[in-house]
Write a structure and sequence with these properties.
Length: 537
């Protein structure tokens, strides 16, 4: 139907274009007739003006001749009258008078002749101007008609081309219509076949609807059964969560009994495919050479796809944190990554806020320490011009900083401000947090000091490894190396390694070596009294 409609529409357009072509031909014929009549009228007008000019000229000449003849006759008559006079004196007087009159008459004749010539010239000029003006008007009309004639011819040619295209499209449409008629016949046969198949499908549909009703009844019964047993399932879930919590506490107790620094490796699914990992034993096998494979041991290796950072902190780290707080022992958390680990920092502060702010008054100090750059108090606004000296002291296993101190809530507000959202560049240094936990229920209880140390430059690992593993063979003394050695040897510690960041630039093997060496360092059972003061600027 759509094709037939389009075909009829094209036929109507062809007819309309044909009628327009005929109208344009009639208009052009009419223009030609008008052009011919104008040319004839122009010629007749020109001849008429010439005739009028000749008539006016002959009329003036006749009037002039009549005037001359009349004056000549009067002169002859007077001359004859004078000839009749006999007196000599009177005759001479009369002849002089007549001569004078003749001279005046001749002057008047010349004047009249000049005025007549001027009038004739003026009339001829006027007629010539009128003729030129009439000629210009007729020429402009003629040019306009010629322009219209050319435009009409162009439109005629365009319409003829459109007509030819429409005729070609019409023939194509007729061919397409024949093909469509064949396709319609084929589709009609397929429809008949589909109708017969539809009956079979409807019968099958009835059977399916019957099965759906049966399955719906079963599902409703299952929903009813589920509602009746929901309380039992919730009890089972709570039991599983409780057992899982007990298991994590037991694992933490086992780690505590081992007495070693806890090392957790955090790794994503993409990196898992590139390494040989044993999650049960907590080991990573690395091809150090084509002939040798080395195993590197961690306390636990945690896949990020199975354990996001919030769950990592709650399930794996929280038992260690709670143990240190319950024993009122100062402790450390070290994070190792190749660049800012902003996600862990954010989730860790949120973890402290939700888990401990109700029971503890928590304050925060945050500094950047470096052997090569100027150390900086990171809690001073970035637009501040303050350049005070940062002093770090360790007295009786207590780290003392002379920097700005904020409550945890104020610290979170400070870090969320627009000026401080961008992470500070800690290249060639460490990002050190000192947090104090003071019990709200018992203000007289001992304040527990917690240190969060972020290594975001893996080039520092070799310096730290020298101070920790081979302090006698240190090539160059590092204040940071001495500080970390004191913290590790006198306070309980836990390490998080972001192994995803270590895959590039050949950092994986040095990081695994460092983690393996750290995991062999024993945690101190009791704080040992010592005193050490150092200054970093």
């Amino acid at each position: 139907m759509e094709l037939e409609y389009q075909l009829n529409r094209r036929v109507a357009m062809c007819r309309k274009v044909t009628v327009q072509c005929e109208r344009f031909e009639d208009g052009m014929n009419h223009c030609s007739e008008q052009l011919t009549s104008i040319e004839e009228e122009f010629k007749s007008t020109e001849e008429k003006l010439k005739v009028d000019f000749a008539n006016d000229k002959s009329l003036l000449e006749e009037k002039f001749a009549e005037s001359i003849n009349e004056m000549s006759s009067n002169y002859n008559h007077e001359l004859m009258e004078l000839e009749k006079i006999t007196a000599k004196d009177e005759l001479e007087v009369e002849m002089n008078r007549l001569r004078k009159d003749l001279i005046d008459l001749l002057e008047d004749c010349d004047t009249l002749k000049l005025s007549n010539e001027k009038a004739v010239a003026q009339k001829g000029k006027t007629l010539a101007e009128e003729f030129e003006q009439h000629k210009l008007e007729k020429n402009s009309s003629l040019e306009l008609l010629i322009t219209n004639y050319k435009q009409s011819m162009d439109e005629k040619i365009s319409l003829l081309n459109d007509t030819a295209q429409l005729r070609q499209q019409n023939s194509e449409m007729e061919k397409r219509l024949n093909d469509l008629e064949k396709e319609i016949a084929q589709i009609t046969s397929e429809i008949d076949k589909a109708v017969s198949e539809k009956e079979a499908i409807e019968n099958e549909k009835l059977n399916i609807e019957k099965n759906i009703e049966e399955e719906t009844d079963k599902m409703n019964k299952l929903i009813l059964f589920t509602k009746e047993n929901e309380g039992k399932y919730n009890d089972w879930y709570n039991t599983v969560e409780y057992e899982l919590s007990k298991r994590k506490k037991l694992e933490n107790s086992i780690d505590e009994l081992k007495g070693k620094v806890r090392c957790f490796g955090y790794i994503s699914g993409e990196v898992q495919d590139k390494l040989s990992i044993d999650y049960i034993e907590g080991t990573i096998v690395h091809n150090t050479t084509p002939e040798e494979n080395r195993s590197f041991h961690f306390t636990r290796i945690l896949p990020s796809n199975a354990l996001p950072l919030p769950q990592l902190l709650f399930r794996e780290y929280k038992p260690f944190h709670d143990l240190c707080l319950s024993e009122a022992q100062d402790f450390n958390l070290f994070t190792v990554s190749n660049g800012p680990w902003s996600e862990l920092q954010f989730h860790f502060m949120e973890f402290l806020k939700h888990e401990y702010c109700d029971n503890f008054e928590i304050t925060v100090q945050n500094v950047f320490l470096s052997d090569e750059k100027i150390s900086k108090d990171l809690l001073i606004p970035r637009d501040s011009s303050s350049k005070s000296c940062i002093t770090v002291q360790i007295e009786s296993n207590l780290l003392i900083l002379n920097t700005r101190e904020l409550s945890l809530k104020d610290y979170l507000s400070f870090m969320n401000s627009e000026k401080n959202k961008t992470p500070y560049n800690v290249k060639n240094g460490i990002n050190l947090y000192k947090l104090k936990f003071q019990s709200r229920e018992d203000p007289s209880a001992k304040t527990v000091n917690f240190h969060l140390v972020q290594f975001e430059d893996l080039t520092l690992l070799s310096v730290l490894q020298e101070h920790l593993i081979s302090p006698r063979f240190v090539s160059k003394t590092s204040h940071i190396g001495l500080l970390i050695t004191k913290l590790l040897h006198h306070l309980k510690s836990c390490f998080f390694f972001n192994l995803d960041d270590c895959m590039d630039d050949g950092h994986l093997l040095p990081t695994l070596n460092f983690a393996s060496d750290i995991g062999k360092i024993p945690n101190p059972k009791k704080p040992e009294p010592t005193s050490k003061t150092s200054s970093m600027r």
